[in-house]
Amino acid sequence: GIRKALGLYSNLRPSILKPQLADASPLKQSKLENGLDVMVVRELTGGIYFGQKTKAEDGSWASDEEKYSVPEILRIGKIAFETAMLRDKKLVSVDKANVLESSRLWRATITELSKDYPEVELSHMYVDNAAMQLAINPAQFDVIVTSNIFGDILSDLSSAIAGSIGMLPSASLGATKCGMYEPIHGSAPDIAGMDMANPIATILSVAMMLEMSFGLAEESKAINKAVDKVLDQEFRTADIYSEGTTKVGCKKMAELICENL
């Protein structure tokens, strides 16, 4: 509801495996030799989550409509291409164009838009293959752009590869600098008040906010560097703990990051 009201139609989720946490990834080290730094650009206010919902009165069937317009695809596509321009200039558009009409429109629109960004290498991938490729060779990806439902699934998969959802921030943006920044995990009510949560994703969300909404790149880098220093010192919350490191709680981790800032 907040995203819709503020017109935040794009969700940017970076999945970065920090070298200090290589052992936390479920993938074999051989799959991570070239690192992991993937940005998933997910359309956020359209598609099946916001489409017409219908169900039979007797409960015998139900349907959800997957619907996209050209303007909706263009605006998320522009953000994805511009994001790719700031990175390695490689963009993978993920769809299911072999089955879905909405995906065929998505692919055609993204392809047409690519003419405005000749420096960006555009490729297309079906969502089932994209999921498989993220698991077997994540280093091939730079920026991924996709629909609401596919982005929901693939961004969670890419975050799992990075070791812990407690490490990953996100930004929800629209046509202005106004945005909403949050860790990709939920509020974790099962561990509320237990001083167990990993605060790093929330802290890194602030770093994203400083850079993307306020243009404070140096301050953003300072926060990221402080997080790296604490990880270099081998302090870990429970979700990223491994033998030989020092386990700390949520409050202590935050204090350590502040001390290194």
Structure characteristics:
261 residues, alpha/beta, seven-stranded mixed sheet, two-stranded antiparallel ribbon
Plain-language structure description:
With 261 residues, this protein is of the alpha/beta class. Helix content is 38%, strand content 19%. It contains eight helices and eleven strands. The protein has helices at residues 2-6, 70-85, 101-113, 127-136, 148-161, 200-212, 217-232, 250-260, and strands at residues 10-16, 37-43, 53-55, 62-64, 90-95, 121-126, 143-146, 169-173, 179-183, 235-236, 246-247. A seven-stranded mixed sheet has the order 6-5-7-2-1-8-9, sandwiched between helices. It has a two-stranded antiparallel ribbon with strand order 3-4. α2 packs across α3 (101-113). The chain is globular and about 50 Å long. The protein starts with a helix and ends with a helix.
